[in-house]
Amino acid sequence: MHWFVLGCIRGLGLRKGGIVTDLQYLENLFLIPDGAERERRWREDPEARRILPELYRLDGIPQPPEYHPEGDVLTHTLLAIRHLPPQADPRLAWGALLHDIGKAETTREIDGRIRAFGHDRAGVELARGIMERLGMEPAKIEDILWLVHHHMFALSWQVDEESQLSRRQWRFVEDPRFPLMLDLMRLDALAAGANPAKLAQVEFYRRARRAQAP
Hints:
It is built from 14 helices and two strands. It is 62% helix and 3% strand. The N and C termini lie far apart (41 Å). It has helices at residues 2-11, 22-30, 35-44, 46-51, 53-56, 73-82, 90-98, 103-106, 119-134, 138-150, 153-157, 167-173, 178-190, 196-212, and strands at residues 108-110, 113-115. It is globular and about 50 Å long. By secondary structure, the protein is mainly α.
């Protein structure tokens, strides 16, 4: 029952220097089993806001409504957290939390349309600073940064047949972290109104990877 976890963290007031570090505190929030409660805690928890001010700067950052009917970037991000599977890989959880962290810096209105060009690259630098500050192990940081950096790959590739994939693209698909990328793509789609085109992309790349399996 997640109230035991919350009681250990909040009720007993265990903080950095005691039993629970800031990193452990946040990772325990990922473990709340009920998705709606997990989303609510991430939105309202004062400790999370203290530890991760960069995340809450996404509140009110607009997104194009034709692609993001759910609303602003913070809402989208926390919906992705809501849809995490039980006992999710922490790298996936952090990838979901940080995949759009660069939008606070890059979102602009251009010719009457909302754009966030380069938010993936900007997000890598912000995410690196956050995770290093929290004391996360370097190998885990690099995997999460890979997810943040490449989470828009399908949009740039515009591929819908396996025969269209280049050798370089196949090497990317064969990366051992690619299943995590597909899980992140699925969360991204579910957090954007269960976008059917994005969900179809996930299934296409799952099939492509299976086709390459020995």
